[in-house]
Amino acid sequence: MQTSRLPAYVDILIIPFLNLLTALFVAGIIIAIIGENPFTALSVMLKGAFIYKGGLGYTLFYTTNFIFTGLAVAVAFHAMLFNIGGEGQAAMGGLGIGLVALSLGGVIPAPFVILLAIMGSALFGAFWGVIPGYLQAKRGSHIVITTIMFNFIASSILIWLLAGMLMAPNQMSPETVSFADGVMLFKIHEILNSMGFSVARSPLNISFALALLCCFAVWVLIWRTRLGYRIRATGFSTKASTYAGYRPEWIIILVMAISGGLAGMMAVNEILGVQHRVILNFTSGYGFTGIAVALMGRNHPVGIIFASLLFGALYQGGAELDFEFQTITRDMVVMIQGLIILFSGALAYMFNPILERFFSANTPQKEMLDG
Amino acid sequence: MSLNITKQNGGESPPFAVSLKDICKRFGPVRANDSISLDVLSGTIHGIIGENGAGKSTLMSILYGFYQPDSGQIELDGISSAFKQPSEAIAMGIGMVHQHFMLVPNFTALENIILGAEGQKGLRTGLQLAREKLQELSQTYGLEVELDSITEELPVGIQQRIEILKALYRGARVLILDEPTGVLTPQETDQLFEILKALKSEGVTILLITHKLHEVMAITDVVSVMRQGKLVAHTKTNDTSPEWLAEQMVGRSVLVNSQFAPGKPDKIALSAHNVCVSDKRGFNSLKSVSFELSEGEILGVAGIAGNGQSELLSVLSGIIKPAIGAFAIGENLFNSSQPADPAFLRQLGIAHVPEDRHAEGLILQFQAFESSVLGYETNPKLGRNLLTDPNIIKEHCSELMNSFDVRPPNPKLLSSQFSGGNQQKLVLAREISSMPKVLLVGQPTRGVDIGAIEFIHNTLIKMRDRGCAILLVSVELEEILSLSDRIMVMNAGEVVGTVDKLDATKSMLGKMMSGIATGAASASSASASPELTIPNLKGGM
Predict the structure, then answer these.
(1) Which of A48, A206, A307, B164 has the fewest CB atoms below 10 angstroms from its CB?
(2) Residue A169 included in any domain
(3) 3-state helix, strand, coil in chain A (%, to 5)
């Protein structure tokens, strides 16, 4: 992590905002070039994400995915580990849900199946994080390389199982049979409608609450527990962590378990919330986008909620753009997302030097001088 | 402030090799150099002393072209000069020997010397030309270096000569030496001083940056004292005393060479038996080290940096495990099959002030209050169950800061925002607040201001008098001599010998440190030939 000499609020609020604005500006230029009005496009996007019927529900549904994968990246990042394996860990989480739901569904009451399935997703995801963690801690294999490779392995395992042992009989798609009745999460619109509010249908389910709960849990973990203290200490200085007796290699393995578990729980939203069966490629890039979410959210749960909301809105609003404009295709939307990832991820610190100059000229600060 | 010492040549103004006029340099709101005027006579050794952060390095960096002054002028031999980068300063005859050498370890000495100045006639010719020129230089100044040796295989003192030769090869007439003796043995220091005298007699002007007062007294002709960016004193060395200089540096009177009452050793707190440490390549960095440490005594470990002291601290604090041998604390025995763990040792009452406070002792990116519980966050007072309570920790940190005079006493500042002395006080406070039975201390005053040194020394003595067993590792011989009750000397991973404080002399320890003499032999020879004994050691920094 880059140590910033900027006031905290600049780092947390102004910089992400500037990055977003830059990305939208560049996207606007491109939209103008293809002959559409950028402002109309922006308004369609915003309406699609928040105002149109069911739009908000979809936005929050996507947000849920991003929160899980963003938290996964953030937790690992506090130990200075770059977990690129969210995609594979989520896929394995889906497998965990599938195995629990298919083997216990109908055998024991549905609520228990759901609870166990959620635990299964976390455990399978954690397992998929622990292996690269172990290889990093004990063998020195770089976590970035191994987690990327584990994405491919997970994907292959899922193909092998879904096109083989777990494939539903008498059909042609690589997917499992649907889970037993009741083994699914409540939809938010169902709950609200039953309470008398009229809300449009959307896939948004109670995983959203689970995601928010995880945000709180991560905040407590990182900033209020001894373990979190040790994780941060290890992230900043392995030597100091060794000196303090924290056994950095175990911290690394543990952190990767937590990180993988969070990524694995993304499958709760997709599989247990919507699909009710395990399908291929349900992770559809959320694991990777989680990196941008964590970067933009400055690895803080609150920041991650907002960054996830932004990306969720982009997904949903982007779909609306695709729908409303003939000239703007799905690829165009992916490009806009790409620009946001570029400016808030890869170029996240682009404005730092300028702002640092601005703030160091205006605020007194102490510099340590040597000799 | 402009101080002149021009009258010594009968009113005729002599040529100044370097003349700085009203140099100002600010970093943000900090005035690193506040209108400094300094004249350096040609062919003298000029000491520049001051605490860390006094602005010495900044001033020299300006002279060397690293920084440009905000205002003010530099004159060399009366000619106004301004350097945009070091290469321009080098071209004007200024050379600098940095504290940390800038040498390529696997190059030969010759290759290092001509690096960047290879000559234009192809490398081979350049090497031959350089060799002839260097032989001439070596003879003139007594700077003997085997030009074809690989640099990293040479002793530190020789590596430093390579640095000096590098500067002279580029035609330096003004040589800046930044803390040149920090890494040298006393013998190597003496040799360096001989070289400096030879250089001076050949008309080279030397600027010596140091914080060791006895060196200033031994070698310089003129000394300038800097404090908080200002030049506060400027005097001929013969007219001054270490005490007066120390007072000028700190701005108040300090004890330069503290004499402490001896400790009263009680029962044995820690004992090591044949402890060996080997690294992955099989290199033994610690060879059969045995010693005993009693409650209420300070055992000083003297040695040139890199002779096993760091490994000794690491083993005893549980960071690395012994390959062979064991050490015991109370009834607990630790060896390779039953290694110690830093967390468990802490519970047993072993505290450790590590040598490298930046990498180990603190987490620079942490706020001070977070660093103040590093290794101690399980203390039940600091939170319930598995949780920590930042407010309680902040309070705890405030208490530590108050009782150890850490400035500024603000637990929310980042650990990196404190000066070296205050960082060290914070580490010391953390380790001592646990009321340890055994305190392992590495380089307690490295990079620490004089005022803080005094405080840290007094604290260690207080701990000892309370019955704490202290193992003190330091490369500062004065510190070892001043604090220790017994002194264990290490060389190449072995204990050369252990001597009682009363029998120890600097020259004897120096010989032991370089492996020339063993403890017993040199102790006996010291008593047999008293001329080896230097009775009173000046300057206790």
Answers:
(1) A206
(2) yes
(3) 70, 0, 25
- Who has greater pLDDT, A319 or B119? A319
With a pLDDT cut of 90, the percent of chain A lying above it is 70
The span from the CA of A160 to the CA of A155, in Å, is: 9
Residues B343 and B363 in one domain: no
**Residue written as tokens 């770059």?**
A82
**Do both B102 and B204 map to the same domain?**
yes
Q: Tell me the backbone φ, ψ of residue A65, rounded to 5 degrees.
A: -60, -45
> Which chain B positions have a beta carbon within 8 Å of A366's beta carbon?
28-30, 417
Chain B residues whose CB is inside 8 A of the A370 CB are 52-53, 57
pLDDT tens-digit readout, A184-237: 999 999 999 999 888 889 999 999 999 999 999 999 999 999 999 999 999 999
Which of B225, B250, B275 corresponds to the end of one domain?
Answer: B250
Q: A360 and B387: CB-CB below 8 Å?
A: no
Q: What CATH number is attached to the domain comprising A147?
A: 1.10.3470
Q: Which two tokens stand for residue A119?
A: 């635990």
What total of structural domains would you count in chain B? 3
B366 touches chain A (CB under 8 A): yes
Nearest-Cα residue of chain A relative to residue B210: A371
Residue A228 counted as domain residue: yes
Does A251 touch chain B if contact means CB atoms closer than 8 Å? no
Residue B398 belongs to domain spanning: 356-435
Contact B367, B397 (CB under 8 A): no
Range of the domain at A186: 37-324
Note whether B114 and B169 are within 8 A (CB): yes
Q: How far apart are CA A218 and CA A301, in angstroms?
A: 7
Same domain, B386 and B485: no
Read off the pLDDT band of B281 (50, 70, 90).
Answer: low
What residue in A sits closest to B228 (Cα-Cα)? Answer: A371
Q: Is A207 part of a structural domain of the chain?
A: yes
Structural domains in chain A (count): 1
